[in-house]
Automatic annotation (TrEMBL):
Domain of life: Bacteria
Xref: InterPro entries: AP2-like_int_N, CB, DNA_brk_join_enz, Integrase-like_cat_sf, Integrase_catalytic, Integrase_recombinase_N, Integrase_SAM-like_N, Tyrosine_recombinase_XerCD
GO molecular function, one term: DNA binding
Keywords: DNA integration, DNA recombination, DNA-binding
DNA-binding recorded as keyword: yes
Family: Belongs to the 'phage' integrase family.
Ranges of residues in domain Tyr recombinase: 173-377
The Core-binding (CB) domain, residue ranges: 62-142
Organism: Paraliobacillus quinghaiensis
Protein name: Site-specific integrase
Gene Ontology biological process: DNA integration; DNA recombination
Length: 400
């Protein structure tokens, strides 16, 4: 029970605040300056209730940098290295501003001001990434009872404002996938003018919709030639693009672990590549590192994402395709082709390895926008005769 007493002309209270974890001695909370005895009693009662419910936030001088490293140690246990790296990069902007500041002194206002300032420098998506990462750290501090509330709570993030140029350009997702004839053009160029491995790489991406990291991580043990399938159980991670400093991680989500039926032409290309790779192994046996990778260099190391991306851009220059095409575009290309042949959205979700069907639905919605024009053209062809008659009658009417 708190002791209420008068100090000069004002009132104060002293209450039990637990034991010091270092010394083991009892701690006390003292607060003064109350105008009446009743005010002091009420404040003491609130303090004791919070203390007994475990809601009391003890003063501390922990800085944001200290908190960050403590949080990171916990966060790293359950996520991939790529996720840890992404959080580190995003959080550096917040740490640069508040790193040396005690977390209990970081207010919602100062945090909002920093977000507003950063929004003038970076894209809306990147600001969201920064805020999401910072929120994880502050929520951790709140759960550890180090702060009364997270300053990231209720923050207003900048809304994306489309420019006239962006609106005129249209949806970039629609622009970035290849039509069937464009995919054909690219693959034929890869066959006739590409380097060894180009045709197999871009056929695999276009015919399966694999993420580039999933494709590079493929090993021969993942291919079932008899049943015409490939399995996805890992992904390639190499932020430095150093061919020997790579890691194989588990796939992006649980839904990403899957087995795909593949087209016979891809099985044929894989068999041909396997026989050619065997010759390379024998030729380069003194220095060949055989780790069973399908998409490997002449030394046996998996090809880097940068290398395959460069090959794509060089091949695109040899075609008539005038689009900003990336390696990820092949996933949208594959999706559009599946939609075109009326594959059910649930099957598309499983094939692409999306854990959440909302992701598939979003892509589906973008893709079907492009098909609306095709539907209009088909309708026009269907009604061509009638349209012609309507047009001729219209002309005759004006002649008379």
């Amino acid at each position: 029970m708190a002791r209420i007493y008068k100090r000069g002309k004002k009132w104060a209270y002293v209450a039990y605040a637990g034991k010091d974890p270092v010394t083991g001695k009892d701690k006390q909370k003292t607060k003064s300056g109350f105008l009446t005895k009743k005010d002091a009693q009420l404040a003491a009662a609130i303090f004791e209730r919070k203390f007994h419910k475990g809601e009391l936030i003890q003063p501390n001088k922990i800085t944001l940098s200290e908190l960050f490293y403590d949080w990171l140690a916990h966060y790293s246990r359950d996520v991939k290295e790529s996720s840890v790296r992404a959080r580190r990069i995003a959080l550096k902007h917040i740490l640069n501003e508040f790193g040396d500041m005690p977390i209990q002194k970081i207010t919602k206002k100062t945090y909002q001001d920093k977000i507003d300032k950063l929004s003038n420098e970076f894209s809306t998506n990147y600001i969201e990434s920064i805020h999401t990462s910072a929120n994880l750290v502050f929520v951790y501090a709140y759960e550890m009872k180090l702060i009364k509330d997270a300053p990231t709570k209720g923050i207003k993030l900048p809304k994306k404002k489309d420019t006239v140029e962006e609106l005129e350009k249209g949806d970039s997702l629609i622009e970035n996938f290849l039509e069937k004839d464009e995919l054909e053009e690219l693959l034929l160029k890869a066959k006739t003018e590409g380097l060894e491995g180009d045709l197999l790489a871009f056929t695999t991406l276009g015919y399966t919709g694999l993420r580039i990291g999933e494709m590079i991580a493929l090993k021969w043990s993942d291919i079932d030639f008899e049943n015409g399938t490939l399995r996805v159980i890992k992904t390639y991670y190499n932020p430095t693009n150093n061919k020997i400093k790579f890691k194989l991680l588990t796939p992006k989500t649980k839904g990403s672990i899957r087995t795909l039926s593949v087209d016979p032409i891809l099985i044929e290309l894989l068999k041909l590549h396997k026989s050619e790779q065997e010759l390379t192994k024998k030729k380069n046996s003194p220095f060949y590192v055989d780790n069973d990778f399908i998409f490997s260099t002449n030394e046996g190391h998996p090809r880097t994402i940068k290398h395959i991306s460069n090959r794509l851009q060089r091949l695109l220059k040899k075609t008539y395709i005038n689009k900003h095409v990336t390696l990820h575009s092949f996933r949208h290309t594959h999706t559009s082709l599946l939609i075109e042949v009326d594959v059910h959205i649930k099957e598309i979700q499983e094939r692409l390895g999306h854990s959440d069907i909302k992701t598939t639905m979003d892509i589906y919605a973008h893709m079907t926008k492009n098909l609306k024009k095709e539907a209009s053209n088909k309708f026009s062809n269907l009604m061509k005769d009638l349209s012609s008659k309507i047009s001729s009658k219209h002309e005759q009417k004006h002649e008379h």
